[in-house]
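Researcher: Sequence recovery benchmark, item below. Answer with residues only.
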């Protein structure tokens, strides 16, 4: 068994399984996701969020898989009886994008489901997440990366009912510079958007977690949909919920009813670790509970 402090991971994502009374923890688990050849994604399992079994190999590429690097940010969602992984991949001469994989169980093995990325082929994209709207229609929410457009954006595209392709053109939700707290990176080279994740509050308010940089450190921000649906308009919170060099978060509820924010901190490799922060929610607002 391992503790979170023993697990090197970026972009943590927790899948809670009521039928198994346990949690699955996914993330970017290659030792160096920036420079090394892609190995795959590992998954860990726990009943109490403290002691973790694993790692188990959730995804390993076949020899003819198109991507060989930047295996980033896997999310796993239960949908229509199967488990779908949304993950970022890259290859030389091919734009980074989110591909969808599928498995029959949370441990995998996950296999390619979509024909390559479902994000636009000529866009540098990352960090796709699944959103199912009030009508039951699936969407992918993702980032159009700052390295291509300087002011990174968060966009949404409809998905086919089978989750194997995008339908229609992507729709702009907001940009990094819409948030007053965001600072540029690399001496003004651009403004980062990372890790969007939609969360519905108990009162029905729709929030979007996403990450960028503030004063040189990775930070976790929040936007709010004024309409209550994924197309917004989105209004940015004036300050991040976490700015101590951590981010790419998601929110889940424990079996005991606690609300936890999962993110990684610090942001430098190889020191990044999954971190769970307890939240309180009041009238559509979330804040960290002081420990």
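Model:
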């Amino acid at each position: 068994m391992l503790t979170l402090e023993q697990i090197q991971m970026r972009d943590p994502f927790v899948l809670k399984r009521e039928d198994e009374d346990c949690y699955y923890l996914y993330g970017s688990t290659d030792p160096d996701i920036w420079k090394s050849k892609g190995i795959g994604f590992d998954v860990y399992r726990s009943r109490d969020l403290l002691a973790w079994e694993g790692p188990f190999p959730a995804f390993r590429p076949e020899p003819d898989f198109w991507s060989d690097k930047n295996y980033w940010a896997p999310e796993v969602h239960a949908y229509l009886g199967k488990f779908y992984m949304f993950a970022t991949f890259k290859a030389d001469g091919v734009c980074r994008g989110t591909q969808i994989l599928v498995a029959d169980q949370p441990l995998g093995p996950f296999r390619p489901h979509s024909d390559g990325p479902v994000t636009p082929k000529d866009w540098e994209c990352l960090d796709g997440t699944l959103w199912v709207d009030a009508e039951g229609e699936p969407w992918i929410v993702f980032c159009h990366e700052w390295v291509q457009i300087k002011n990174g954006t968060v966009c949404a595209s409809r998905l086919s009912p089978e989750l194997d392709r995008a339908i229609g053109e992507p729709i702009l939700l907001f940009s990094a510079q819409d948030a007053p707290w965001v600072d540029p990176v690399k001496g003004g080279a651009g403004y980062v958007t990372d890790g969007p994740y939609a969360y519905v509050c108990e009162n029905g308010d729709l929030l979007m977690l996403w990450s960028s940089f503030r004063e040189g450190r990775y930070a976790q921000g929040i936007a709010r949909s004024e309409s209550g649906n994924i197309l917004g308009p989105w209004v940015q919170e004036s300050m991040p919920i976490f700015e101590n060099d951590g981010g790419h978060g998601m929110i889940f509820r424990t079996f005991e009813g606690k609300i936890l924010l999962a993110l990684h901190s610090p942001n430098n490799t190889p020191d990044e670790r999954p971190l769970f922060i307890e939240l309180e929610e009041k009238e559509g607002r979330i804040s960290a509970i002081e420990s």
